[in-house]
Amino acid sequence: MSDKRLLLGDEAVALGALHAGLSGVYAYPGTPSTEITEYIQQSPLARERGVRSRWCTNEKTAMEAALGMSYAGKRALVCMKHVGMNVCADAFINAAVTGVKGGLVVLAADDPSMHSSQNEQDSRFYGKFAMVPILEPSSQQEAFDMVAEAFCLSERFRLPVLMRLVTRLAHSRAAVSVGEPAPQNAFAPDDERTRWVLLPGNAKRQYASLIAQQPAIAGCAEDSPFNRLELSQAHSLGVVAAGIGYNYVREMLPAGVSVLKVSQYPVPARQVRELAAQCGRLLVVEDGQPFVEEQVRGLLGPEATVLGRLSGDLPRTGELTPDCVAAALGVSGARPFAKAEHLAPRPPQLCQGCGHRDVYAALNRVAAEFPGARIFGDIGCYTLGALPPFRAIDSCVDMGASITMAKGAADAGQRPAIAVIGDSTFTHSGMTGLLDAVNDHAAITVIISDNLTTAMTGGQDSAGTHKFEAICLALGVEREHLHVVEPLPKNLDEITRILREEIAYEGVSVIIPQRECMQTLARKLRQKKQAK
Amino acid sequence: MNRIDIKLCGVGGQGILSIATVLGEAATLSGLQLKQAEVHGMSQRGGDVQSDLRLSTEPIWSDLIPLGGAGLIVSMEPMEALRYLPYLAPDGVVVTASKPFVNIPDYPDEAALLAELDALPHTVRLDIEEVARESGLPKSANMVLLGMAAPYIGLLSEAQLREAIARVFARKGDAVVQANLQAFGLGLSHSMKTVSK
């Protein structure tokens, strides 16, 4: 029996995983991956089957817990945005050395064009780095079908499998045909200690076995049903179209062009050579960085003409669009209307009534008294404090970097050195940095702006809610330099006074402005009203 | 092949995703192919938001609408309608709310902006918030807009859209369904008057 459902790419992955007999999803929220875990959290099938789905503290704890579930024989899914791969890289790379037992699928959702991110790194490089199979769907249906195949591949090769989405697939809806769910794996912990204890002796053996598997993994990609060579009459242009790049090519395809659709890696060398033999020139169309393009150049050597992002035929940065692909294919569309005249940018901003606003109002007031002050920001809604009207922060680099950068700058002599970090970001990657600062008695003022949720991604549970004072005290922050305040306009004077005093203190101070996010509060009120 | 590409746009929080949900439901009910790309995350916070919605009797490849491809721009805000002008097809129609949502310091001159909209070949605009408020339906302005767009979608009938509204809002109770259907009717009759002119 099959029925059709209208699903986001993210939801197709989630349902695909559930139907493949998933026993646990492990994830930290991050656009554009968040909806995968949310879908599983709300799924009746997941509830019925007891699928574990609570949010994790960060991507590394998620990856390791999923590896543990795999060790115990069950199928596990790890989801994150691309930059999350950096956080879990230690566990991810080494999971390819230990190998897995139950199927382990690692899903990275990349964000080319940086719609909601600080870079556009391409997760496929991580898959190649770890030497594991990589899958990259071109459509919502393929995303659904592919997850089941990913779990099978994972169990067949006893390796984690990386699945890569991009924003446009993760956040686009289409109808998906859905069949009957498969059963879950039984509990069956592994007992091969030599695989799992990566002492050098064992690790060398495991690494050699990973290398020895590479030809089989490459052959599997060449024989994959997700890779397809569509040869037309002999023509001078052949297109290698990876992931959703395939859709833009098919949308704009001029007659007589041959296409190699690539959705499973390693890059299928046999088909690339076959396509090159037919066509004088190859165009590589892929979303993200020139991952396939570089490899195709390597495969075919310097004599071949390979076009793509490196050659300038496609833009070097930003996501693919039907328009840039059309241009690369030499197809020009009608563009009847130019850019409008009466138009202004409308950047996102902090919600009216948001507690972060009160935090920045106080910070800006105090910073004005200390012209040399530097405020190190972090990742979350409060990063919007960089924009007008606040223009309050001097840096935003990666999860947790506010505290550690403030500390390093203070070590170099920066006064005042202020860090602003959100509650969820603090538990994700800020706590260890705070411990460093305490141990070094660094002269920094840390503001943990606590809105009781992971707001930026839509209000997911935050790992440390109601625990921040206890965490800070346990890490060694002194009681008299730890303050909890309520960020409201009426408390502006009080918050300003505390800030001023703590900036003067030559050691670690933590101020926790605590007030629930307007969005989650409003949602709770709506749900309450509906329940009545 | 019968198809239409619709650019839905507005400001984060104005309810364009509800319009997309209704259109998605209607497309599913009528057996049409559909792809709908949304914007989530950072851009939702009071910034510009847009969604590409493609309907067709045949399979659809790209999730994104090409430049010059949108048969319809449906906007909850007049300047946001103009933002996507390069996507409008030569014979495309702009259906938009006419009241600016001003949350930026450098919002363009309102009269000039509306004049630019009205100078396009096919523009239908209405103060949807005011119409919805006057009729006691303050929360259904987005369905007024959908009603305005309805005659230009082509692939979906009025009955299919009404059925989709009823289904999408069913879990919020009958009063909400009725309010949204009424709002849809107000927008529809505005456009019908415009069309007959």
Q: What's the quick description here?
A:
The complex is a heterodimer of chains A (532) and B (197). Chain A has 532 residues and is of the alpha/beta class.
Q: In words, what does this structure look like?
A:
The complex is a heterodimer of chains A (532) and B (197). Chain A is of the alpha/beta class. Chain A folds into 3 domains: 3-212, Rossmann fold (3-Layer(aba) Sandwich); 228-329, Rossmann fold; 355-520, Rossmann fold (3-Layer(aba) Sandwich), CATH 3.40.50. Chain A has 21 helices and 18 strands. The radius of gyration of chain A is 25 Å and the shape is globular. Chain B has 197 residues and is of the alpha/beta class. In chain B, 43% of the residues lie in helices and 22% in strands. Chain B has 7 helices and 6 strands; from the N terminus they run βαβββαβαβαααα. A 6-stranded mixed sheet of chain B has the order 2-3-1-4-5-6. Chain B is globular, with a radius of gyration of 16 Å. The chains are: A alpha/beta (532), B alpha/beta (197). Chains A and B meet through strand 1, strand 7, helix 12 and helix 15 of A and helix 1, strand 2, helix 2, strand 5 and helix 3 of B. Strand 7 of chain A pairs antiparallel with strand 2 (33-37) of chain B, so a sheet runs across the interface.
